[in-house]
Specification:
The complex is a heterodimer. By secondary structure, chain A is α/β, with parallel strands linked by helices. Chain A is built from 17 helices and ten strands. In chain A, helix 2 packs parallel to helix 6, helix 6 packs across helix 9 and helix 14 packs parallel to helix 16. The longest helix of chain A is centred in the C-terminal third of the chain and has 18 residues. The relative contact order of chain B is 0.12. The chains are: A alpha/beta, B alpha/beta. Chains A and B meet through helix 13, helix 14 and helix 15 of A and helix 2 of B.
């Protein structure tokens, strides 16, 4: 039996956690107190030792990312929390923010201290209005307790956090598009290099981290990097929030050690496929992650194992599909999503995804021909590796996997 | 820091921070681009310039990607060529199939790339054009259906001109370049400069063509058709016939215009000389009588609309002189007509301009009298090229002729109006004479020459140290105006040309933004200035005669009525 490990979710269902007292009574702000006694550089080293990898999807080592921030401060530094949770099948960050807002705020404050930031921003998905309000209340509470603002806890550190709501564009979850949006511009990704750590918000050094990533920081600083690492499985560090949805008996967000087996997650955590039906396919890490067939799910859910299996851990949003699911229909909603969310800046994503959508739509209307699949593959190949940001790539890869693995279902559309 | 890289298996030296595109260019390797603009930050939108770098999974955009030591780059590998071809196919699938009818069919970057990359089959389903064409502007036509969303027009408008009339709207496949709040160009803050046309790789942006109006007038026996040509036309027109940049074809152009049937061919450089007489006197009068300073030049109509919109507090600083085009227009319909006893209503006045904003200027209500506009139609250099080809006239193969007298006579001071700094140089040559009664020791005023966006100098004129500045492009003009706004007071006279480089690089000139071509065109003007003897506007005998016979003296009442105008604040 796999065992749930409630670390980031330990306050789920506990009311009043936006209040400083309640949060502190359960060990809250111990991490920040420890951190403020250390040098910023030592915190970065501790995060490196934790082997924490970014929970937004890319899995980039957080400590390593932090070390790109200039040591000599010549301009303001910023920490941004990416709370633009919009990947279909993903609903984990909201659980943290709704139930334990101060955990995120503490994490950001520690990050702000480690990265010598003047200011932090929480860029939150526009639809999360209630959560944004809750975060603002929690920030106000922290400010009143001298946990934000000037001279935090008397240690001479000044830092504050502003909540900014997005306006409904998925692309603004991409860190440079997020920065553009925060600056009041069109949400279009920037070219890299320069990376935000060198030139980010208002051309100043900026680190963008996901909610879940930042929520791990107080946990690391409460004890140390190694104990955080040890919470994971042999290969991977820490815990992971897995959001399981689709045809399962108990959909929801579950926290398990990073690297927990996908099959176990579906069968044990989520209670197995609904109504005793057979499993057909699983998208393991949000809609961008290439689909897995039922016989491919004996898989450790961590970054490297997923890549090895030809997919991605992504956000850990597991979408389960039973035998009644039509994969071409899934493909159609997938491409509809990516076409709708493409910012339109670069040619392959803007024109290519639309062309795939057009081709698939025709196939589903019975108007496809023997060239239709060829066209989809050709365009997917063009998109991959030529786009300005990962969005087009993700759409192309997701589609390509569906068409490759369930080719007979697509070919059947042409008969 | 120098570093070693390998480009297509050739070892090369590169500078740290240099982009792959820049190294390749130096090595003579042509990487195609569609959204790249020299001197502006790369946008990375079109992805046509992608190349393969060993050790990287993704292709990288060479326009922005910096080289690093030991990097191995392949600019034309099979994977790269296939990606580029497929990208062009995707663009073509969303582009009208009407190349045969397109204004840009002979110089379309998209069409040329399709050819270069061997696109010969329609593999993708074609999207039907679904955007409305914006025909509202007197100067430009915008067809979003032909737009490939490279964004160059938007960036030129915002970053070079500081106008930001157009922007990217909508999202994803529904993106388009448009005007905010669903306005059209005519009601937008567009200043009609046409720099967007020069940058556009396709036919999405073109001048509002008035060729047919001219043909109709030439064919109308009732019409007396007069044409004037701006100083910058003779050094760019040949490019429309495939000749290298910087060749002056003034005489051939005059001959060609006569062949087409124009009754009179006048040279706008004549009224450029006249402008100097009026504007030079105005400057002296403002300095002596405590008028508003710094005085700003007024010959560039994009700039005029810019001031009226964005800096209305400065309209009083603008010289009240009409532009040379409008001075000539007024002279033709009001003096020439009277003298030749022709009904002004029967005169059809055409001007050939390097400029799309001149089309707008000609239509300004104050530029006429008794319901008759002084200039009826403005053609760009490109339109003249088209018209000549239609009439079977090859500018390379025609005996040169002289422009008609008296309004075809010019000095080289009027001629160098075509380059940034030219108006200033011409004004200083004559202004110096007007104030001191002596000639300047050196007529070449080099600090105001060249393609720098802002040029400044201090010139000793008698007891006065005259502060002068020259701005080309409106983003640069903004810098100067903002300085003056903040209290800078050492400047007496500022020349502003809307287009970067001046009229030789005007929005009506041959397509492209190549700096070397712009330099060659300016050089051609200065070469004329070097080789001729009449180099100061006040020496122009026909200008003198015009004052003797008709105007009296500069700034006279007649001058004011005919040659001066007024400005007003325009809502943005």
């Amino acid at each position: 039996m796999i065992e749930e490990k409630k670390v980031l979710t330990r306050h789920v269902g506990v009311p009043g956690m936006e209040k400083v007292d309640a949060y502190m009574n359960d060990g809250g702000y111990k991490g920040l107190k420890n951190a403020l006694d250390k040098k910023p550089q030592d915190i970065i080293e501790e995060v490196k030792k934790s082997f924490l990898r970014g929970r937004g999807g890319a899995g980039f080592p957080t400590g390593f990312k932090w070390s790109f921030i200039p040591k000599e401060k010549t301009k303001p530094h910023y920490i941004i929390c990416n709370a633009d949770e919009g990947e279909p099948g993903t609903f984990k960050d909201r659980v943290i923010m709704e139930n334990d807002p101060l955990l995120l705020i503490e994490g950001m404050t520690i990050a702000g201290y480690a990265l010598q930031c003047d200011m932090g921003f929480i860029y939150i998905r526009g639809e999360f209005r209630k959560i944004a309000e809750k975060l603002e209340t929690a920030i106000e509470n922290a400010r009143n307790a001298n946990l934000l603002g000037k001279n935090i806890l008397g240690k001479g550190f000044n830092f504050d956090i502003l909540v900014m709501r997005g306006a409904g564009a998925y692309i603004c979850g991409e860190e440079t598009a997020l920065i553009e949006s925060l600056e009041g511009k069109r949400g279009e990704p920037r070219m890299k290099p320069p990376f935000p750590a060198v030139e980010g918000l208002y051309k100043c050094p900026t680190i963008v981290n996901n909610v879940e990533t930042l929520a791990c920081i107080p946990i690391i600083m409460q004890s140390n990097g190694k104990s955080f690492k040890d919470m994971g499985t042999f290969q991977s560090a820490g815990t992971k929030l897995y959001g399981i949805s689709g045809h399962v008996n108990n959909p929801g967000v579950y926290e398990y050690p990073m690297g927990t087996n996908l099959k176990d997650l579906i069968e044990q955590a989520a209670g197995g496929v609904k109504d005793g039906k057979k499993l057909k396919a699983v998208i393991p890490g949000g809609l961008s992650a290439p689909i897995l067939k039922a016989d491919e799910i004996d898989l450790d859910m961590d970054f490297d194992a997923c890549i090895k299996a030809g997919t991605m851990l992504g956000s850990g949003g597991v979408i389960v599909m039973d035998e009644t699911t039509s994969i071409p229909e899934v493909a159609k909603s997938t491409i509809d999503f990516f076409v709708h969310e493409s910012c339109g800046q670069c040619t392959p994503c803007r024109e290519g995804l639309h062309k795939i959508q057009e081709t698939l739509t025709k196939m589903m209307a019975g108007e496809g021909d023997e060239n239709s699949l060829k066209t989809i593959f050709k365009i997917a190949k063009t998109i991959k590796g030529t786009t300005l940001c990962p969005l087009g790539d993700a759409g192309a890869m997701a589609l390509e996997a569906m068409v490759t693995k369930f080719r007979d279902e697509f070919e059947a559309l042409n008969k | 820091m120098k570093m070693q890289i390998e480009l297509n298996n050739r070892k090369l030296e590169a500078e740290s921070g240099e982009t792959i595109l820049s190294v390749a260019k130096r090595a003579g390797i042509n990487i195609p681009t569609l959204c790249y603009l020299e001197h502006l930050k790369p946008a990375g939108r079109c992805r046509i310039c992608v190349v393969e770098v060993d050790g990287r999974k993704d292709l990288v955009p060479s326009c922005s990607f910096p080289v690093s030591d030991g990097m191995k780059i392949h600019t034309h590998s099979p994977r790269v060529l296939e990606a580029r071809k497929n990208l062009i196919e995707l663009m073509l699938a969303n582009h009208p199939d009407d190349c045969l009818y397109c204004n840009r069919n002979s110089n379309c970057d998209l069409r040329q790339l399709a050819d270069q990359l061997g696109v010969r089959e329609r593999e993708l389903v074609h999207v039907e054009p679904h955007f409305e064409i914006d025909n509202s502007s007197p100067s430009l036509v915008r067809d979003p259906n032909k737009c490939i969303l490279c964004g160059k027009c938007v960036r030129v408008c915002e970053e070079i001109q500081g106008v930001a009339a157009i922007e990217l709207l909508g999202r994803g496949f529904e993106s388009f370049v448009g005007v905010e709040n669903n306005k059209n160009l005519a009601t937008s803050r567009c200043i009609n400069c046409g720099q967007c046309i020069l940058a556009c790789p396709t036919g999405a942006l073109t001048e509002k063509s008035q060729i047919q109006d001219v043909i109709d007038a030439l064919n109308d026996p009732e019409k007396y058709v007069v044409v004037q040509h701006a100083p910058a036309i003779s050094v760019t027109l040949a490019e429309e016939f495939g000749v290298e940049a910087g060749i002056d074809v003034d005489g051939a152009m005059v001959a060609a215009l006569r062949r087409m049937g124009f009754d009179k061919v006048f040279d706008t450089s004549f009224t450029a000389d006249l402008t100097i007489m009026e504007e030079g006197s105005e400057l002296v009068s403002r300095i002596v009588n405590g008028g508003k300073l710094p005085m700003l030049t007024s010959c560039s109509p994009g700039w005029i609309k810019f001031v009226e919109q964005f800096y209305p507090d400065f309209t009083g600083n603008l010289s009240t002189c009409k532009s040379p085009q409008q001075m000539m227009g007024a002279i033709i319909k009001r003096i020439f007509a009277q003298r030749e006893d022709i009904d002004p209503a029967k005169i059809f006045s055409v001007s050939i301009m390097p400029c799309t904003a001149k089309k707008f200027e000609a239509g300004r209500p104050e530029m006429g009298e008794n319901g008759i506009q002084d200039v009826d139609v403005v053609l760009t250099t490109r339109e003249l090229g088209r018209l000549l080809r239609m009439y079977g006239i090859d500018i390379r193969n025609i005996e040169p002729e002289q422009a008609d007298s008296p309004f075809g006579e010019r000095t080289t001071a009027g001629k160098i109006f075509g380059a940034t700094g030219g108006v200033m140089e011409a004004a200083l040559r004559t202004g110096y004479y007007l104030v001191t009664g002596e000639l300047m020791e050196h007529l070449e005023i080099t600090p105001v020459r060249g393609l720098d966006g802002i040029k400044e100098s201090k010139i000793k004129v008698g007891d006065l140290e005259l502060g002068v500045a020259v701005a080309s492009s409106l983003s640069k003009a903004r810098i100067l105006l903002d300085e003056v706004k903040k209290g800078r007071s050492d400047l007496h006279f500022i020349e502003v040309m809307t287009c970067p480089g001046g009229c030789v690089a005007g929005g009506g000139q041959p397509i492209g933004t190549n700096v070397d071509k712009i330099k060659a065109r300016s050089q051609a003007l200065y070469k004329l200035d070097d080789s001729e003897t009449m180099r100061m506007s006040h020496e122009n005998p026909s200008v003198k005669k015009l004052y003797e016979d008709y105007l009296g003296k500069p700034l006279s009442e007649k001058s004011h009525h005919l040659l001066h105008t007024h400005y007003e604040k325009r809502p943005i």
